[in-house]
Design a protein that fits this description.
By secondary structure, the protein is an alpha+beta fold. The protein has helices at residues 2-21, 30-42, 46-65, 67-87, 97-118, 125-133, 140-158, 162-184, 199-210, 237-250, 269-273, and strands spanning 189-195, 215-220, 227-236, 255-261. The protein has a 4-stranded antiparallel sheet with strand order 2-3-1-4. The chain is elongated and about 70 Å long.
Length: 274
Protein backbone atom coordinates (compact mmCIF):
# COMPACT_ATOMS: atom_id res chain seq x y z
CA UNK A 1 0.00 0.00 0.00
CA UNK A 2 2.87 2.41 0.80
CA UNK A 3 4.53 1.78 -2.57
CA UNK A 4 1.20 2.27 -4.34
CA UNK A 5 0.56 5.62 -2.63
CA UNK A 6 4.11 6.82 -3.33
CA UNK A 7 3.64 5.87 -6.99
CA UNK A 8 0.34 7.77 -7.22
CA UNK A 9 1.82 10.79 -5.44
CA UNK A 10 4.87 10.92 -7.74
CA UNK A 11 2.68 10.63 -10.86
CA UNK A 12 0.40 13.45 -9.66
CA UNK A 13 3.46 15.63 -8.95
CA UNK A 14 4.82 14.95 -12.45
CA UNK A 15 1.51 16.09 -13.96
CA UNK A 16 1.67 19.36 -12.06
CA UNK A 17 5.26 19.93 -13.15
CA UNK A 18 5.20 18.97 -16.84
CA UNK A 19 1.67 19.94 -17.83
CA UNK A 20 1.49 23.24 -15.94
CA UNK A 21 4.65 24.62 -14.33
CA UNK A 22 7.74 23.69 -16.39
CA UNK A 23 6.34 24.66 -19.83
CA UNK A 24 5.60 28.12 -18.40
CA UNK A 25 9.07 28.51 -16.83
CA UNK A 26 7.64 28.35 -13.30
CA UNK A 27 9.80 26.67 -10.68
CA UNK A 28 9.21 24.59 -7.63
CA UNK A 29 11.80 24.80 -4.87
CA UNK A 30 14.59 22.46 -3.82
CA UNK A 31 16.11 19.81 -6.07
CA UNK A 32 13.17 19.97 -8.49
CA UNK A 33 13.76 23.70 -8.93
CA UNK A 34 17.48 23.16 -9.52
CA UNK A 35 16.63 20.40 -12.01
CA UNK A 36 14.35 22.75 -13.95
CA UNK A 37 17.14 25.35 -14.10
CA UNK A 38 19.72 22.76 -15.21
CA UNK A 39 17.33 21.44 -17.85
CA UNK A 40 16.76 24.94 -19.24
CA UNK A 41 20.51 25.65 -19.39
CA UNK A 42 21.60 22.33 -20.94
CA UNK A 43 18.49 21.49 -22.99
CA UNK A 44 18.38 18.06 -21.35
CA UNK A 45 15.17 16.86 -19.75
CA UNK A 46 14.92 17.76 -16.09
CA UNK A 47 14.10 14.12 -15.25
CA UNK A 48 17.81 13.28 -15.58
CA UNK A 49 18.82 15.97 -13.10
CA UNK A 50 16.11 15.01 -10.58
CA UNK A 51 17.94 11.73 -10.00
CA UNK A 52 21.49 13.11 -10.24
CA UNK A 53 20.95 16.02 -7.86
CA UNK A 54 19.18 13.84 -5.28
CA UNK A 55 21.93 11.19 -5.04
CA UNK A 56 24.12 12.99 -2.44
CA UNK A 57 21.07 13.80 -0.30
CA UNK A 58 19.96 10.17 -0.41
CA UNK A 59 23.38 9.00 0.74
CA UNK A 60 23.21 11.38 3.69
CA UNK A 61 19.64 10.31 4.44
CA UNK A 62 20.60 6.63 4.40
CA UNK A 63 23.20 7.22 7.10
CA UNK A 64 21.14 9.51 9.29
CA UNK A 65 17.44 8.71 8.72
CA UNK A 66 17.35 4.98 8.09
CA UNK A 67 17.02 2.51 5.24
CA UNK A 68 13.22 2.44 4.97
CA UNK A 69 12.78 6.20 4.59
CA UNK A 70 15.66 6.38 2.10
CA UNK A 71 14.32 3.52 -0.04
CA UNK A 72 10.84 5.06 -0.12
CA UNK A 73 12.37 8.41 -1.12
CA UNK A 74 14.56 6.81 -3.79
CA UNK A 75 11.58 4.97 -5.25
CA UNK A 76 9.48 8.15 -5.30
CA UNK A 77 12.27 10.10 -7.01
CA UNK A 78 12.72 7.41 -9.69
CA UNK A 79 8.96 7.30 -10.40
CA UNK A 80 8.85 11.11 -10.53
CA UNK A 81 11.78 11.17 -12.96
CA UNK A 82 10.22 8.53 -15.24
CA UNK A 83 6.83 10.19 -15.39
CA UNK A 84 8.17 13.71 -15.90
CA UNK A 85 9.96 12.28 -18.96
CA UNK A 86 6.67 10.73 -20.13
CA UNK A 87 4.57 13.83 -19.43
CA UNK A 88 7.16 15.96 -21.25
CA UNK A 89 5.83 14.50 -24.52
CA UNK A 90 2.37 16.04 -23.97
CA UNK A 91 1.28 19.60 -24.67
CA UNK A 92 0.82 21.84 -21.61
CA UNK A 93 -2.73 22.30 -20.41
CA UNK A 94 -2.49 26.11 -20.37
CA UNK A 95 -0.05 28.89 -21.21
CA UNK A 96 -1.76 31.34 -18.86
CA UNK A 97 0.80 32.08 -16.13
CA UNK A 98 -1.80 32.70 -13.45
CA UNK A 99 -3.73 29.49 -14.12
CA UNK A 100 -0.54 27.46 -14.48
CA UNK A 101 0.74 28.80 -11.17
CA UNK A 102 -2.42 28.12 -9.16
CA UNK A 103 -3.50 24.79 -10.68
CA UNK A 104 0.03 23.45 -11.08
CA UNK A 105 0.90 24.28 -7.46
CA UNK A 106 -2.22 22.56 -6.13
CA UNK A 107 -1.54 19.41 -8.18
CA UNK A 108 2.15 19.38 -7.27
CA UNK A 109 1.43 19.91 -3.57
CA UNK A 110 -1.14 17.11 -3.59
CA UNK A 111 1.37 14.67 -5.09
CA UNK A 112 4.22 15.62 -2.78
CA UNK A 113 1.87 15.52 0.22
CA UNK A 114 0.79 11.95 -0.59
CA UNK A 115 4.42 10.82 -0.71
CA UNK A 116 5.30 12.55 2.59
CA UNK A 117 2.18 11.16 4.28
CA UNK A 118 3.25 7.67 3.21
CA UNK A 119 6.74 8.04 4.69
CA UNK A 120 8.96 9.28 1.86
CA UNK A 121 9.99 12.46 0.06
CA UNK A 122 10.55 13.71 -3.47
CA UNK A 123 13.19 16.31 -2.67
CA UNK A 124 16.54 15.70 -0.99
CA UNK A 125 16.87 19.25 0.34
CA UNK A 126 14.19 18.40 2.91
CA UNK A 127 16.52 15.74 4.33
CA UNK A 128 19.28 18.30 4.83
CA UNK A 129 16.84 20.76 6.38
CA UNK A 130 15.61 18.15 8.87
CA UNK A 131 19.14 17.18 9.90
CA UNK A 132 20.40 20.77 10.09
CA UNK A 133 17.43 21.91 12.20
CA UNK A 134 18.35 19.36 14.87
CA UNK A 135 21.65 21.16 15.46
CA UNK A 136 20.59 24.79 14.95
CA UNK A 137 17.75 26.90 16.43
CA UNK A 138 16.01 27.13 13.03
CA UNK A 139 12.91 25.26 11.91
CA UNK A 140 12.80 22.94 8.90
CA UNK A 141 10.33 25.26 7.17
CA UNK A 142 12.61 28.26 7.63
CA UNK A 143 15.61 26.41 6.23
CA UNK A 144 13.69 25.18 3.19
CA UNK A 145 12.39 28.69 2.56
CA UNK A 146 15.95 30.14 2.75
CA UNK A 147 17.27 27.54 0.29
CA UNK A 148 14.40 28.14 -2.11
CA UNK A 149 14.86 31.92 -1.90
CA UNK A 150 18.38 31.55 -3.32
CA UNK A 151 17.17 29.04 -5.93
CA UNK A 152 14.55 31.50 -7.20
CA UNK A 153 17.15 34.29 -7.38
CA UNK A 154 19.49 31.94 -9.26
CA UNK A 155 16.72 31.13 -11.73
CA UNK A 156 15.96 34.80 -12.34
CA UNK A 157 19.65 35.61 -12.94
CA UNK A 158 20.53 32.64 -15.14
CA UNK A 159 17.59 31.53 -17.26
CA UNK A 160 14.22 33.02 -16.38
CA UNK A 161 12.80 36.48 -15.70
CA UNK A 162 12.08 38.15 -12.37
CA UNK A 163 8.39 37.88 -13.22
CA UNK A 164 8.47 34.09 -13.46
CA UNK A 165 10.63 34.00 -10.32
CA UNK A 166 7.86 35.81 -8.47
CA UNK A 167 5.28 33.41 -9.87
CA UNK A 168 7.53 30.61 -8.63
CA UNK A 169 7.40 32.01 -5.10
CA UNK A 170 3.59 31.97 -5.28
CA UNK A 171 3.74 28.38 -6.58
CA UNK A 172 5.96 27.31 -3.72
CA UNK A 173 3.66 28.89 -1.13
CA UNK A 174 0.50 27.29 -2.54
CA UNK A 175 2.19 23.89 -2.90
CA UNK A 176 3.51 24.15 0.67
CA UNK A 177 0.00 24.80 2.00
CA UNK A 178 -1.45 22.01 -0.14
CA UNK A 179 1.10 19.59 1.30
CA UNK A 180 -0.10 20.52 4.79
CA UNK A 181 -3.71 19.81 3.79
CA UNK A 182 -2.84 16.38 2.38
CA UNK A 183 -0.49 15.38 5.21
CA UNK A 184 -2.53 16.73 8.12
CA UNK A 185 -6.06 16.55 6.67
CA UNK A 186 -8.74 19.10 5.89
CA UNK A 187 -10.18 19.09 9.38
CA UNK A 188 -8.53 21.60 11.70
CA UNK A 189 -8.05 20.04 15.12
CA UNK A 190 -7.51 21.84 18.42
CA UNK A 191 -6.23 20.64 21.76
CA UNK A 192 -8.01 22.29 24.69
CA UNK A 193 -6.64 22.60 28.22
CA UNK A 194 -9.01 23.94 30.88
CA UNK A 195 -8.20 24.92 34.46
CA UNK A 196 -11.39 25.28 36.48
CA UNK A 197 -12.56 25.28 40.10
CA UNK A 198 -15.32 22.80 39.14
CA UNK A 199 -13.46 20.37 36.84
CA UNK A 200 -15.68 17.33 37.47
CA UNK A 201 -18.91 19.14 36.60
CA UNK A 202 -17.30 20.72 33.55
CA UNK A 203 -15.83 17.42 32.34
CA UNK A 204 -19.17 15.60 32.73
CA UNK A 205 -20.94 18.26 30.68
CA UNK A 206 -18.28 18.14 27.95
CA UNK A 207 -18.59 14.35 27.70
CA UNK A 208 -22.37 14.57 27.40
CA UNK A 209 -22.34 17.36 24.82
CA UNK A 210 -19.38 16.22 22.69
CA UNK A 211 -19.25 12.47 23.16
CA UNK A 212 -15.52 13.02 23.37
CA UNK A 213 -12.94 11.46 25.68
CA UNK A 214 -11.69 13.74 28.46
CA UNK A 215 -8.42 13.40 30.38
CA UNK A 216 -7.53 14.84 33.78
CA UNK A 217 -4.00 16.04 34.48
CA UNK A 218 -3.20 16.49 38.14
CA UNK A 219 -1.48 19.75 38.96
CA UNK A 220 -0.94 22.13 41.85
CA UNK A 221 -1.42 25.86 42.27
CA UNK A 222 1.88 27.66 42.78
CA UNK A 223 0.59 30.28 45.22
CA UNK A 224 -2.06 28.25 47.03
CA UNK A 225 -0.48 24.79 46.81
CA UNK A 226 -4.00 23.50 46.22
CA UNK A 227 -4.33 20.35 44.04
CA UNK A 228 -5.87 20.98 40.63
CA UNK A 229 -7.60 18.73 38.12
CA UNK A 230 -6.69 20.02 34.66
CA UNK A 231 -9.01 19.05 31.80
CA UNK A 232 -7.49 18.06 28.46
CA UNK A 233 -9.26 17.07 25.23
CA UNK A 234 -9.00 17.33 21.45
CA UNK A 235 -11.86 18.79 19.42
CA UNK A 236 -12.63 19.97 15.91
CA UNK A 237 -12.81 23.65 15.05
CA UNK A 238 -16.62 23.50 15.01
CA UNK A 239 -16.75 21.83 18.43
CA UNK A 240 -14.51 24.52 19.89
CA UNK A 241 -17.42 26.95 20.15
CA UNK A 242 -19.39 24.32 22.09
CA UNK A 243 -16.51 23.95 24.55
CA UNK A 244 -16.37 27.70 25.07
CA UNK A 245 -20.13 27.87 25.61
CA UNK A 246 -20.16 25.02 28.16
CA UNK A 247 -17.21 26.47 30.06
CA UNK A 248 -18.80 29.92 30.11
CA UNK A 249 -22.09 28.52 31.48
CA UNK A 250 -20.51 26.38 34.22
CA UNK A 251 -17.41 28.36 35.17
CA UNK A 252 -16.97 31.79 33.51
CA UNK A 253 -13.63 32.19 35.35
CA UNK A 254 -12.13 29.00 33.87
CA UNK A 255 -8.80 29.37 32.09
CA UNK A 256 -8.97 27.89 28.57
CA UNK A 257 -5.78 27.31 26.51
CA UNK A 258 -6.15 26.26 22.86
CA UNK A 259 -3.44 24.89 20.55
CA UNK A 260 -3.35 23.54 16.99
CA UNK A 261 -3.05 19.78 16.52
CA UNK A 262 -1.51 18.33 13.34
CA UNK A 263 -3.18 14.91 13.56
CA UNK A 264 -4.86 12.55 16.02
CA UNK A 265 -5.76 8.87 16.06
CA UNK A 266 -6.97 6.28 18.53
CA UNK A 267 -9.49 6.42 21.35
CA UNK A 268 -12.96 7.40 20.11
CA UNK A 269 -11.91 10.48 18.18
CA UNK A 270 -12.17 9.24 14.59
CA UNK A 271 -15.32 7.34 15.41
CA UNK A 272 -17.10 10.39 16.75
CA UNK A 273 -16.17 12.68 13.85
CA UNK A 274 -17.33 10.38 11.06
Amino acid sequence: MQIFMITIGAIIASIGLELFLVPNDILDGGVIGLSIIAGAITNYQMSVFIILFNIPFLLIGFRRMGRKFTMHTLYGIVVLSIFTAIMHQFEPVTDDLFLATIVGAVILGTGVGLVIRTGGALDGTEIIAILFSKERPVSVGQLVMIMNFFIFILAALLVFSWETAMYSIITYYIAFKMIDVVVEGMEELKSVTIISDVPDELADSLIQQLGRGITFFHGEGVYTNDPKKIIYTVVTRIELSIVRSIANDIDPEALIAIENVADVSGSNFKKSTQ
